[in-house]
Design a protein that fits this description.
The protein is mainly alpha-helical. It is built from 2 helices and no strands. It is elongated, with a radius of gyration of 19 Å.
Length: 59
């Protein structure tokens, strides 16, 4: 996968610096994104299973 250059707003950079605990910004961002992707992938099957299934009426 190719790296994607993203310009972050200054307030987000300040938040990252305040919360990353000495870890590199890129490492910290990757861990946040990895956790987000993991949560999304786990919630997709549950959301799909909870969605009502539409059946065509038998005529």
């Amino acid at each position: 996968m190719r790296p994607l250059a993203v310009r972050l707003p200054p307030e987000l950079i300040h938040w990252l610096d305040a919360h990353r605990g000495g870890e590199a910004r890129t490492t910290f961002l990757r861990s946040i994104l990895r956790d987000h992707i993991r949560r999304q992938s786990r919630s997709k099957p549950r959301a799909h299973a909870a969605a009502p299934q539409r059946h065509t009426p038998l005529l």
